[in-house]
C-alpha cells in the first residue's frame, strides 16, 4: 500500500487586541491641579478608544500625592492588575508623572518588563520595553529626582523666610481659629467652647468626662464624629490659644518619603508673642499643662498598671459591636461597653454585666473549673452581650449557647475585703470625731 502524506495547514490565529491602560497623577489637591487631572483622564479615554487594535482597560489616577511616594493607591492597584495579566501597555504623560524616585522607577519598570508590560512615556517618546529604554530611563529619572530635590529645597527656603516673619505656612485650621492669609482669625462660638474645656479641665474633670459631657450635649467637633480623649489633648496642649504662635512644630523627613515628623530640636522653631487674639490666658494654659503632666506621671506609676483579665477581648457589645472592658469601682466589679464608658448612653445604652455573674455563667457554659486563658481560647470565640440581660456564647465548635445573668444590688456585690475596708474607715472617722 502506497504511503500518503497529507499536510494540515496551521489554523490562523486571531490577533488579540493590546490591552491598554493609562496612569495620571497630580502632586497637589488644589482646584487647578484637579482640573489638570480631569483633563488627563478625559484625554486618555478618547485616545485609547480611538485605536481599533487596542482594548481599553482603565485609567489609574492619583490625586494630591507626590511622585516620590511608593504607596500611591492607584499606582499600586495598576501594578497589581499588571501582575494579574490584565494589562499589556501603560500610557503616561512623562517620567515625572510616573515616579520621581529613580530607584522606584527602575524597580517598577524592570518588574513590568518581566511581566511583558510596556510603559510608554509620551513626553519623552520612549517605550520602557525597548532595547535602550532602561538606559535612557535611568538618566531621565535621575534628572527628575534632582528636579524634585531642587523644588523641595526652594520650598523650604520660602517657608523659612515666612517663619522668620512670623507667618504661618500651610497648616490646618484649629478649633477656635481659621487660617486666613497666613494669619489666625478667631471663631467666637468655637472660642467659647475652648475656654469652657480649659475651665472644666483645670476644675478637675478628665478628658473622658469632658468628652462625655460634650457628646451628650451634641456639641459638634471639627473633624471627628464625636469628642474623645485625643481631640481634647490636642486642645489642652495647643499654645496658640494664648495668642502666641509656635512655628515649625513639625517637618518633613525628606523630599523622597515626605513623612511628617515632630520637631524635637532637629530644626529651628520660631516663637511669636502676641501674634493673634487670645482665647485663654498664659496662666490658664500653663496650669492645664502642669495638671496634664502630673496626671501622666500618676498613670505611669508601677502601682497603676492596666490589667488584663482571662475574658479580656472575648466580650462584645451586641448593641454597637464594640468590646466590653473590665471595670473595678469602689463597690463593684463589672464589664461595660467601651462606647458607653467613653461617650455615655446617647451613643450606646448597653447594660454593664456584673463580673461575678459573667464568671459564674462562663464556667458553667465552658464546663471548666477556673477562668484559665488557654482553656477559654480553646473553647470560646466570643461572648455577645444582648438586651434583657442575655449573654450569647459563640463556641469554637460552631454552637451558640444563650444564658441570662442576674442583676446584683450594690450591697450584695460587696466582697468581704470591701466590707472590712468600709468598717476600718468608719472606725477611723469615729475616732477622729471623738
Structural write-up:
The structure is a single chain. By secondary structure, the chain is an alpha/beta fold. It has 14 helices and 18 strands. The protein has helices spanning 31-49, 73-83, 95-98, 102-114, 133-164, 188-202, 207-216, 229-236, 282-299, 338-343, 355-366, 373-379, 410-413, 416-433, and strands at residues 18-25, 54-62, 89-92, 118-121, 126-127, 177-180, 183-186, 245-247, 250-252, 260-262, 270-272, 315-317, 324-328, 333-337, 353-354, 380-386, 390-395, 400-404. A hairpin with a 7-residue loop joins strand 9 and strand 10 (260-262).
Topology:
Blueprint: E1 18-25, H1 31-49, E2 54-62, H2 73-83, E3 89-92, H3 95-98, H4 102-114, E4 118-121, E5 126-127, H5 133-164, E6 177-180, E7 183-186, H6 188-202, H7 207-216, H8 229-236, E8 245-247, E9 250-252, E10 260-262, E11 270-272, H9 282-299, E12 315-317, E13 324-328, E14 333-337, H10 338-343, E15 353-354, H11 355-366, H12 373-379, E16 380-386, E17 390-395, E18 400-404, H13 410-413, H14 416-433
Parallel strand pairs: 1-2, 1-3, 3-4, 12-16
Antiparallel strand pairs: 4-5, 6-7, 8-11, 9-10, 13-14, 14-15, 16-17, 17-18
Helix pairs in contact: 4-5, 6-9, 7-8
Key descriptive features of the protein:
single chain, 434 residues, alpha/beta, Rossmann fold, Hect, E3 ligase catalytic domain fold, 3 domains, 5-stranded mixed β-sheet, flat
Per CATH, which architecture of the largest domain?
Answer: 3-Layer(aba) Sandwich
CATH-defined superfamily of the largest domain:
Resolvase, N-terminal catalytic domain
Computed CA radius of gyration, to the nearest angstrom: 32 Å
Amount of beta strand: 15-25%
Strand order of the largest sheet: 2-1-3-4-5
pLDDT < 50 runs, ≥5 residues: none
Average pLDDT over all residues: 80
Query: Tell me, what's the shape?
Result: flat
Structural class: alpha/beta
* N-to-C CA distance: 135 Å
Total domains = 3
Tally of contiguous helical segments: 14
Helix content: 40-55%
Question: Largest sheet, described in full?
Answer: 5 strands, mixed
Amino acid at each position: 500500500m502506497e504511503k500518503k502524506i497529507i499536510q494540515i495547514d496551521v489554523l490562523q490565529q486571531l490577533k488579540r487586541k493590546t490591552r491598554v491602560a493609562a496612569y495620571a497623577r497630580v502632586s497637589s489637591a488644589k482646584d487647578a491641579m484637579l482640573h489638570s487631572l480631569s483633563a488627563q483622564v478625559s484625554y486618555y479615554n478618547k485616545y485609547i478608544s480611538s485605536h481599533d487594535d487596542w482594548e481599553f482597560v482603565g485609567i489609574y489616577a492619583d490625586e494630591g500625592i507626590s511622585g516620590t511616594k511608593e504607596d500611591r493607591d492607584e499606582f499600586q492597584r495598576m501594578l497589581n492588575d499588571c501582575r494579574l495579566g490584565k494589562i499589556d501597555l501603560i500610557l503616561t504623560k512623562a517620567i515625572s508623572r510616573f515616579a520621581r524616585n529613580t530607584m522606584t522607577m527602575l524597580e517598577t519598570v524592570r518588574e513590568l518588563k518581566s511581566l511583558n508590560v510596556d510603559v510608554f512615556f509620551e513626553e519623552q517618546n520612549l517605550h520602557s520595553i525597548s532595547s535602550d529604554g532602561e538606559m535612557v530611563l535611568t538618566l531621565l529619572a535621575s534628572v527628575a529626582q534632582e528636579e524634585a530635590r531642587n523644588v523641595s529645597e526652594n520650598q523650604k527656603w520660602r517657608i523659612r523666610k515666612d517663619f522668620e516673619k512670623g507667618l504661618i505656612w500651610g497648616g490646618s485650621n484649629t478649633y477656635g481659629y481659621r487660617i486666613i492669609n497666613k494669619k489666625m482669625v478667631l471663631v467666637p462660638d468655637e472660642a467659647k467652647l475652648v475656654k469652657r474645656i480649659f475651665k472644666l479641665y483645670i476644675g478637675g474633670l478628665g478628658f473622658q468626662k469632658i468628652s462625655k459631657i460634650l457628646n451628650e450635649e451634641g456639641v459638634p467637633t471639627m473633624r471627628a464624629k464625636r469628642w474623645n480623649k485625643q481631640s481634647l489633648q490636642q486642645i489642652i496642649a495647643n499654645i496658640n490659644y494664648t495668642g502666641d504662635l509656635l512655628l515649625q512644630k513639625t517637618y518633613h523627613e525628606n523630599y523622597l518619603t515626605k513623612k511628617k515628623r515632630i520637631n524635637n530640636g532637629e530644626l529651628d522653631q520660631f516663637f511669636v508673642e502676641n501674634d493673634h487674639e487670645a482665647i485663654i490666658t498664659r496662666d490658664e494654659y500653663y496650669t492645664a499643662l502642669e495638671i496634664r503632666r502630673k496626671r501622666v506621671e500618676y498613670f505611669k506609676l508601677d502601682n497603676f498598671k492596666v490589667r488584663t483579665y482571662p475574658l479580656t477581648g472575648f466580650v462584645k457589645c451586641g448593641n454597637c459591636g464594640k468590646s466590653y472592658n473590665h471595670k473595678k469601682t469602689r463597690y463593684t466589679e463589672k464589664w461595660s461597653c467601651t462606647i458607653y464608658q467613653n461617650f455615655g448612653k446617647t451613643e450606646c445604652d448597653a447594660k454593664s454585666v456584673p463580673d461575678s455573674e459573667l464568671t459564674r455563667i462562663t464556667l458553667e457554659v465552658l464546663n471548666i473549673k477556673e477562668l484559665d486563658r488557654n482553656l477559654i481560647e480553646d473553647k470560646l470565640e466570643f461572648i455577645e452581650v444582648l438586651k434583657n440581660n442575655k449573654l450569647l456564647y459563640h463556641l469554637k465548635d460552631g454552637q451558640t449557647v444563650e444564658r441570662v445573668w442576674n442583676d446584683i444590688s450594690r450591697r450584695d456585690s460587696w466582697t468581704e475585703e470591701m466590707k472590712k475596708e468600709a468598717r476600718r474607715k468608719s472606725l477611723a472617722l469615729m475616732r477622729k470625731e471623738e
